[in-house]
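Preliminary data (for renewal application), zinc ion complex.
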Amino acid sequence: MKFPTVGISLGVGLLVAECVAWIRGVLDSFGGGGIWLALLQSLVLYVVVGATIDLAVQLVARGRWKASPILRGLPFVILAIFLHYNFGVAKLLALATIPGAVVWACAVHVRWGVPLAAGMVLFGFSPAFTGAGSQVTRTPLVDSWRDGPSFVLVVLDTVRRDHCSTYGYGRDTTPNLTTLARSGAKFEDAYASSCWSIPSHASLFTGLLPRNHGATFEHFRLESDSRTVASVLAAAGWETVGFSANPYIASGTGMDRGFNRYEDLWRPAVMRRMVVAKQLWARLTGVDQDKGGRSVVDEFRRWLDERDGDRPYFAFVNIMEAHAPYQDAPLRAAFTDPGLSGGALEKIGDLSHEAQWMGTRVDDEHLAPTLDLLDGATASADRFLGEILNAVGDDAVVVVLSDHGDLVGEHDLHGHMTGLYEPLIRIPLVIAGPGIPAGAEIRGPVSIVDVMPTILTLAGVEKPPTDGIDLAPAMAGEISLQDRLVTAEHYRTDRATQLWAQYRSPEEMRSIQARRAAVVGGRRKRVVAQDGSDLGYDLLADPLEQRPFLGADTGHEVSVPTPRDLDAGPVELDPAQIEALRSLGYVH
Ligand SMILES: [Zn+2]
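Predicted structure:
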């Protein structure tokens, strides 16, 4: 058999193998959906790499070297190792498609290969520079409107409260949030309603707990009967806009409900990440990609500059910089050990990212540098917040919070797929702007479900029933929240943690995947779970939740949550969204 024939057979075989693995993974995770476009993207990507490097080699090679399989294959093997040396065996096998594509490229005749490769390079690179791929949904503004405050609601996705300098952390990770807090109200004891983006954002938008809005790990969608802060304000005449870098907080999951304009900006960010040359550049230079923050801030500013009229607005912004993989953070160098090379930091970040979606463990020696990377990621999120605040000025009420935190080895867990521990659900929350008392520090539990009723009260618009309260009296010092209880919920994570079972015992898996609910009040917290556990914590004496006692001894009432009965099949995600989730480690 001649070399090109062998090459084609090998390349096609490897691609088919990866396609099958991919299809199986996606089917397991989401119950189906159109993924052929994503497969095509992957294939084109490999061919772009294959053809480009092969052509470059062909241009410089002379004589008998021109046909040498070693010379033609070597750059691809080096590229594959360089890009993926720090992944596990399974990934290396999947990535064997790159050498497969190399061999395929060897079979391409140069005369036909040049225009083919040029077209593919254009196709592959265009989204990186044009921002193509963002998806905008629009609904018309209502005709009538009246004066009222404008609002900017910023979610710093995955930012841990205890790693914010605003809340006493030793490193200056969030200077812009601190400046904002000085001019407004800082909530010391704010809690998310869950440990993950979808339920938490749905609570932020609807003022409802997950059991009432129904968007959870078990149902990835905010249903159309939901009344959101955006839909109520839009009906009252506000211009409502959203800019999101989070592929879950997107039109595909119903999170664009009520927005006149909603931009899914994770698309260009992910397309950029898919361009191999861009990844290669980042690894060579140490200049890391942002996770969509650049596009979000630029698009937000563009919209703000171009909007006309005095109509009040409500703008929602989601910044993903603090989300794993932590190493992709523009400001990481300020927080990491200068003695560690870029490659070493990539490896540490990848170990942590892998632990989040595979359930593996990270060695103790790698935990400190992982936290350094987390700090760099947090600071990168704060930097984009600073740009937003500069653009807004004093014209709007600004609400900044995170939707949940992240675990970095605490309780033998990583990421935010499971648990209701404090690093996961205790969040930063700052409200500032016209009418908000400067420098207020509010103690006592508040919840993400309080944000919607607070905004609607400030707007002077009638509120639908919610599980939250208006925080204005607390900000004004008129009421105390010391006796209040707040709730967080967690639903079954079977799909999100399906790969954990190879590293965790069946007993652990039962606990990891179980539904659970936490109630926090006073200094005590009670957590009950579907696996029968019922634990209490004294958060003052035991802030790291290391010494649980009998849950009933907290005196708090709480029950395992039952999800709202939602009659809906599996959510269909589009191929680009699936690719985005893969890059974040949600889909395998
Ligand atoms: Zn999130």
